[in-house]
Amino acid sequence: MEKIKSLADLKKIRDNVQAKIDLREKSEHPENLIQIKVAMATCGIAAGSKETMNYFLNNLEKNGIEAIVTQTDCMGHCFAEPTIEITKPGKEPIVFGHVDCAKAEEIIQKYLKSNELVEGIIPIN
Amino acid sequence: MKDLSSHIMDIVQNSIRAEATEIIVRILENPEQDVFLLTVRDNGCGMDKMTLEKVRDPFFTSRTVRKVGLGIPLLQQNAERTGGKVTIISKQGKGTTIEASFGHAHLDRPPLGDIAEMITLLVAANPKIHFIYKHTTNNGPYRFDTEEIKQILEGIPPSHPEILPVLQNMIRENLKDIRADRTVIQKIYFEN
C-alpha cells in the first residue's frame, strides 16, 4: 500500500474509491439492511471481539453482503464471548456465541448468504 | 486486558452507553518524567455522586444483564501496579472524564497495542459519534478528528473496506513520527 500520511493523501484515495462504488446512503434506510452488532464490553474485548468485528468489516463487501456493523454492550452471555447479534430485515434478532474469525466466516457463508442456521445460537428465553 | 488500546476501547464503550456524542481520547507521553497519561473525556449523561463512589467496585455495574463490572477496576489495577492512579470526574448531564496515569518505563505498564486499529474500529462502528484522538509525546503532537475525516470522505462511510485500512495506515504513519524518545530514560538510569 502506498504511504498515506496527510489528509490530502486520504482525499486522493477517497476519489479513487468513489469512482468504483455507487454511493448508497446506507444510513437512510437502515431497516432494509442486515444489522450486525458485536458485543464490545470488557468481557467481549478480553475474548477477542476486536478481531471478530474486524473480520466482518473486511469480509462482508467481498461476499456481496450489505450490512451495518456496529458495536453494542454486553448482552449478558459473557461465557460465550465474543457474541454477535444479527438482525435480518423483517426477522427476529439471533444471537451467536463463541464467534471467532472461523465462526464469523461460517456465519457469513451459511446464515447471511443462504439463510442456513449454524451451531452456536444462544436461545432467548 | 493485554494492552492499553483494549482498555481504551472498554472505557469508550462506557461513554457510548452514556449516550455521548463527542468522545476525546488523549494520550500524553512524557518519558523525561516517566509519565504515560491516558484520558477519555465524553459529553454523555455523567454519573451522580453515589454511582461515582461505587464505580471502582468490581461488583458494581449499571447494567442489568450481569452482576459484575470490571472495566474500571482492571484499568485501575494496571495503573496502580506501575505507580499510577485512576481519577474520575463526572457531572450529571455534562459528561465524564476518566484519567489513568502509568509509569512510562515501568515493566508492568501494558504496551499501547494497536491504537490505530482500535480508533478506526470505534469510528467505523459508531458513525454518529464525533471522535477526537490526540497523542502527544516528547517528539510532538498528533491529532485525529472524525469531523475532518468526514469532510474529506464526502459521504463515503469510514467503515468502507477500502477506506478503513487507509485510515489505519494514516494514523500509524503519523504516530511513527512522534514515537516517544525513550533514550532520555536510559540516560537517567545510567547517570545515576
Key terms for this structure?
heterodimer, A: alpha+beta, Glutaredoxin, 4 helices, globular, B: 192 residues, alpha+beta, Heat Shock Protein 90, six-stranded mixed sheet, 24% strand
Structure description:
- The complex is a heterodimer of chains A (125) and B (192).
- In chain A, helix 3 (49-59) crosses helix 4.
- The N and C termini of chain A lie far apart (48 Å).
- With 125 residues, chain A is an alpha+beta fold.
- In chain A, a hairpin with a 6-residue loop joins strand 3 and strand 4.
- Chain A has four helices and five strands.
- A five-stranded mixed β-sheet of chain A has the order 2-1-3-4-5, with helices on one face.
- Helix content of chain A is 36%, strand content 17%.
- In chain A, 33% of the residues are buried.
- Chain B starts with a helix and ends with a helix.
- Chain B has a single domain (4-191), classed as 2-Layer Sandwich (Heat Shock Protein 90).
- Chain B has 192 residues and is an alpha+beta fold.
- Chain B contains seven helices and six strands.
- A six-stranded mixed β-sheet of chain B has the order 3-4-2-1-5-6.
- The model of chain B has no long low-confidence stretch (mean pLDDT 90).
- In chain B, a hairpin with a 2-residue loop joins strand 5 (130-137) and strand 6.
- In chain B, helix 1 (4-17) runs parallel beside helix 4 (115-125) and helix 4 (115-125) runs antiparallel to helix 6.
- Chains A and B meet through helix 1, helix 2, helix 3 and strand 2 of A and helix 1, helix 4, helix 5 and helix 6 of B.
Topology (elements, then pairings):
The complex is a heterodimer of chains A (125) and B (192).
Chain A lengths: L6 H14 L13 E6 L2 H6 L1 H11 L7 E6 L11 E4 L6 E3 L4 H14 L6 E2 L3
Helix pairs in contact in A: 3-4
Chain B lengths: L3 H14 L4 E9 L4 E8 L6 H6 L16 H10 L5 E6 L3 E9 L11 H11 L4 E8 L2 E6 H8 L10 H14 L5 H9 L1
Parallel strand pairs in B: 1-5
Antiparallel strand pairs in B: 1-2, 2-4, 3-4, 5-6
